What we know:
2 domains, flat, 3-stranded antiparallel sheet, two-stranded antiparallel sheet, 11 helices
Amino acid sequence: MSKKFTPWFPHETNPRSNRKLKALFNTYGGAGYGYWWILQEILCSQPEYKLDITDEFAYTELADDMRCAYDFLEKFINDCINKFHLLQCDDTHLWCPALIDVMQPLEEKRASLSERGKKGAAVTNAKKSAQATDENGTSEIKRGEKSAEKKREEKRTEEKSREEVVLHNTSNTATPAATLHNAIATEQHINNNTPLPFATLDELKLRAMADTVHFVPIHLRPGRIQTEAHLPLWLDAFNKWLRYGGEHVKSERDYRFHFNNWIQRQDMSKNPEHYNPLTDNTPQRGKYKGKQLPAAPANISVKEAMRRHKEEMERSRIIDEQLAIARGKIKPEDLVKPVD
């Protein structure tokens, strides 16, 4: 069995039908089920798929990798060994027999494919060496590469022109924050549609809610947010705070780190739906440390300031829709007019 890290392992479409895993699921719920698969990923990266536990800090490091408390991990692994019979251990290692049984034939198949690949590569290299001596063949390859590069360049130019048309049509009404949002969206699209590490606040909220392993369980615990229904409401409140501070796009890592610091300073007894960033007087950290958030413009009521903020968000939404239409991702008739 290879000691190299295996980049993936088979995952059945319905492993919950397994009687042992079903018992684990019933005992620990969805969070425990997630921890089980995190543990499988860690074991899969170990030599011989066995975790060395001779080091006195082995379980401490494992708890840190799984983002859980040490006491919880100790009970979880003990139940997996003695109660659910999913794991085995001795004085030096911890392993999952079922994982080893699955990976053994996979390792053999990979070794066979690797050997075939080496033989095929040798034949291919020999053919390429023969073709390299043929001037006509070499010229044909170069012409094909130039033609493909020319087509890619024409496509990039066409898409860039579409972006510039949309940005020009909306430049008269776009605010500085919306302009920043559009600039990042344009760069992301022109770069061969490769997603940047930045996203809108609404998109970051959806990603966070979908992460049931590293985000949701961390905040749904005593001392934090009590119910799952309140988590999206607190994320909405956090997004209000960011927008009021002038932020409309962030990286996913900074968004979660910022939310973790911000939520610790909030009063969990209050209703997040009533959160108002204009009245948030909690001490600031990071780039806001030592200064207050921007205040509402002079002689303008809180209600009027929030109305202007809502108008700015509506303009940003319209720009996003027009960009999507220009890219051909949606049709104008597919748009649904928002309800006031």
